[in-house]
Write a structure and sequence with these properties.
By secondary structure, the chain is an alpha+beta fold. It is about 35% helix and about 25% strand. The termini are far apart. The protein binds adenosine-5'-diphosphate (ADP) and magnesium ion. Adenosine-5'-diphosphate binds near residues 11, 28 and 30.
């Protein structure tokens, strides 16, 4: 199958590639065309997943596609943006129909979940890698940025942390497991659920936000640096799933929750007065600390005593 036939068969013909919504022109021309409503701004983000770096090779193609799209779409959630569509730059060592069919199926499933449309891409031969660029829209001036956190705000997360990191030994085949806990953790790793609705609900409320991709401590450091404040995290309030604790034990679960990446849960700062309204509306807001004057991130125990921070998270080019 040639390049153009491949694009036509697996991608242009996919249900998620149909035009509609804000997508005026999709796959097939030199560019896609988007109609951005008056009073809104375009939000754009791109993420690459490289075989052997971001995922094991070989792996399940359907899960890989879901994860690639979810990881990128999570950045739209973190900005409070409404999804429009995405492009897919796919580099493949060879074009196998079973692999492509599974990949396209996974893409379709996550696109439907996130209300995303495939609007274009690029297809090349080489070592397996996937780059997804996402496009969303947000009312002008209402995007959730990293730099608005103020001393006195609460520090919150949108759900349990550490599950994806807890799944890593399973993903890499270093540990076997067919228990309910193991499969729950694997789901977190392969099919993260971008918190799009929560992000949109936080518009005009959260003072700063991001999605946790590199670990709570490391990503909290990004909000602290951008906002010129210190984030204080209460170790005992970091939410950990029962499955994670049962699978790796309390101590390792906490380590996963603090420094493990890949959860794609939102972390955000909130003026204290906004909390009750969000909770009353049923949003999964978990307070884990607060913002104070200073810089960096402080981890404290239940008595407020500072705890040592051993490792901050994943960094591709650290020494
Ligand atoms: P060009 O040479 O003008 O860049 P291509 O031949 O690369 O165009 O692609 C033809 C059309 O197919 C374009 O609309 C492009 O966006 C789309 N396309 C290419 N690869 C993919 C892909 N993997 N997924 C979705 N659309 C794709
Ligand atoms: Mg091209």
């Amino acid at each position: 199958m040639g390049e153009f036939e491949l694009i036509r068969h697996y991608f242009a013909a996919a249900a998620c590639a149909r035009v509609g919504g804000d997508v005026v022109l999709g796959i097939g021309d030199d560019c896609a065309l988007l109609a951005i409503p008056e009073g809104e701004q375009l939000a754009i983000s791109t993420d690459s997943l490289v075989a052997g770096v971001h995922f094991p090779d070989p792996c399940d193609a359907a899960l890989l596609a879901q994860r690639a799209l979810a990881v990128s779409t999570s950045d739209l959630a973190a900005m409070g943006a409404t999804p429009i569509g995405f492009t897919l730059a796919l580099t493949l060592p060879s074009a196998t129909s079973t692999w492509l069919a599974a990949f396209a199926g996974g893409l379709e499933a996550m696109a439907a979940r996130c209300n995303m449309r495939l609007i274009g891409g690029d297809t090349t031969r080489g070592p397996l890698s996937i780059t997804v660029t996402v496009f969303g829209r947000v009312p002008t001036g209402q995007a959730l940025l990293r730099h608005g956190a103020c001393a006195g705000d609460l520090l919150c997360v949108g759900g349990e942390l550490g599950a994806a990191a807890g799944a890593l030994p399973l993903v890499l085949g270093e540990r076997e497991g067919d228990t309910a806990e193991a499969s729950q953790l694997l789901d977190h790793y392969w099919t993260p659920q971008p918190q799009l609705a929560l992000g949109q609900a936080l518009r005009g409320k959260a003072t700063a936000a991001l999605d946790i991709s590199d670990g709570l401590l490391a990503d909290s450091g990004h909000i602290a640096a951008a906002s010129g404040v210190r984030l204080c995290i209460e170790q005992d309030r970091v939410p950990l799933s029962d499955a994670l604790v049962q699978w790796v034990g309390q101590a390792r679960a906490l380590q996963c929750g603090l420094t493990g990446g890949d959860d794609y849960v939102l972390a955000f700062t909130l003026p204290a007065g906004e909390l009750s309204g969000l909770l009353a509306d049923g949003w999964p807001v978990r307070v884990i600390g607060h913002v104070e004057a200073g810089e960096g991130v402080r981890l404290v125990d239940a008595e407020g005593q500072s705890l040592p921070i051993a490792s901050q998270g994943y960094n591709h080019f650290s020494a």
